[in-house]
């Protein structure tokens, strides 16, 4: 009886092989054949799932995002309701976006490789245009809750502040990857920004 193949597991194995290679040599130096060898499968088996490097990269990027989302939920959901404040949710979410350990560093390097290709690839660029507004709205929703609670100044625009948080995460990521900032310094700067943002109107 032929061995049953777990297709989801194989796709994830391919994605993880791509992450490892892209983080060490970049995407331009990584071929489909390289990824197949790293994943321990034949090129023909890989092409059964992904016909091009762009298609494989898009899947890997979506998988990275799902794993990061799951890690945020693991941090936030077990918290008691009184500790699940907008600031805590935002802090945990942004911390997961930063390269604070080897896993998140690899994920960020793959995202940078994706960014470089997306500049010239409409299909990949469309993924960013759809994903960033969703993240901005999630952050903005937390900020609106904070405003209702009086935790931030009422005059702050939630959408603008949400986009600034995303830009902060991108900037801290770049400098942490270049070792300009240590992971601890990146978190300190994040906390300093949140301290200023979560300053309510003086009474």
UniProtKB/TrEMBL annotation:
Gene3D superfamilies: Tetracycline Repressor, domain 2. SUPFAM superfamilies: Homeodomain-like (SSF46689), Tetracyclin repressor-like, C-terminal domain (SSF48498). It holds the Pfam family TetR_C_6. Keywords: DNA-binding, Repressor, Transcription, Transcription regulation. Residues 31-50 bind DNA. Residues 8-68 form the HTH tetR-type domain. GO terms for molecular function: DNA binding. The keyword Ribosomal protein does not apply. PANTHER family: HTH-TYPE TRANSCRIPTIONAL REPRESSOR NEMR, TRANSCRIPTIONAL REGULATORY PROTEIN. This is AcrR family transcriptional regulator.
